[in-house]
Design a protein that fits this description.
By secondary structure, this protein is an alpha/beta fold. The chain is 36% helix and 20% strand. It has eight helices and twelve strands. The protein has helices spanning 9-23, 27-43, 51-62, 86-97, 125-139, 157-166, 216-226, 284-300, and strands at residues 72-75, 105-109, 113-117, 144-148, 173-179, 185-189, 205-209, 231-234, 244-250, 253-258, 260-263, 280-281.
Length: 301
């Protein structure tokens, strides 16, 4: 759906450039991109009268230097509030209310193997702790667990740590965030206590991935894979490891700018640009059956 507008293109580009320059995790790339956007504006490349088309053009340019998929000018069909992060938060809330809080499926398969689908995203922990804790507690009694992240497009790193806490026995260092400029580093650890029951750190665990799995969902898969806790089954993920914030720059446009980067304590790197590589590659559509077969073989072997 397009949104016809009388677009104030220059102010949108100017504000996007300002946000890039002030906040992007890689200042030298921000400088390159700022020059590119200003040059393209002068050349008339953004002379369009449609917010969705402008978003597409600017996003292509923003991602042209280092392929950062979190760096976007994002179009919203409905008008979005001006407050920082409000556009994303409003959309999240609608999705939260229609997805059982981000855990739309808990199912017991043959052989005592449970499936827990986490979708469409890992919502802010202050919302999601109760529904996710309930779903993970229910799944804790299974003999093996399949966590389905194929339709999960990201979310809150604190929620990643919360979910990991149910799948490990001990408090564990999961990830380290390096914020812009390198002056602030923040470690992420699993929790010493969780509400409800843990699935724990020893029973078979599988994570399903697809080329739509993104951002915080990739971190969940990557953390568990690097710790040797889970077998990832499916397709390589999209490859976005930079947490971002959103700013409304027009009633229908939001600039999302990454301000940090993740470093895994095991690998010393992250999944930016490469995606999480599955341990058992297969089509996403076949991954549930494949993981179920692997779980049954392990339980009966």
């Amino acid at each position: 759906m397009t949104t016809p507008t009388n677009l104030p293109t220059a102010p949108v580009i100017d504000e996007t450039v300002r946000l890039l320059t002030e906040h992007y995790v890689f200042p030298e790339i921000a400088e390159q991109l700022a020059g590119l956007l200003q040059r393209r504006l002068t050349e008339g490349a953004y002379d369009v009268n449609d917010a969705e088309e402008l978003a597409r053009l600017v996003t292509a340019d923003l991602q042209s230097v280092n392929g950062d998929r979190h760096l976007r000018l994002k179009h919203h069909a409905a008008p979005v509030p001006p407050k920082q992060g409000a556009a994303t938060l409003d959309a999240m809330r609608r999705n939260f209310d229609t997805s059982l809080g981000g855990a739309p499926r808990v199912q017991l398969l043959d052989g005592g193997v449970a499936v827990l689908e986490l979708a469409p995203m890992l919502f802010p922990l202050e919302w999601a702790a109760e529904p996710l804790g309930a779903a993970l507690t229910l799944a804790s009694r299974a003999q093996a667990l399949i966590v389905d992240l194929r339709a999960n497009r990201g979310g809150d790193p604190d929620t990643v740590a919360f979910v990991c806490s149910y799948l490990l026995d001990e408090r564990t260092h999961l990830n380290t965030m390096h914020w812009r400029g390198g002056e602030r580093i923040e470690q992420s650890w699993s929790l010493p206590h969780v509400p409800g029951a843990r699935f724990g750190g020893s029973k078979p665990l599988y994570v399903l991935s697809s080329d739509s799995t993104f951002s915080a969902a990739e971190e969940l898969a990557y953390n568990l894979q690097q710790l040797g806790r889970a077998v990832v089954v499916g397709e390589p993920t999209r490859g976005g490891a930079h947490p971002c914030q959103g700013w409304t720059v027009h009633p229908h446009l939001e600039a999302t700018v990454p301000f940090g980067r993740a470093i895994n304590p095991v690998s010393g790197t992250n999944w930016e640009g490469t995606g999480v590589q599955p341990d058992v590659p297969c089509a996403a559509a076949d991954s549930l059956d494949r993981a179920h077969a692997l779980a049954l073989a392990r339980l009966t072997g």
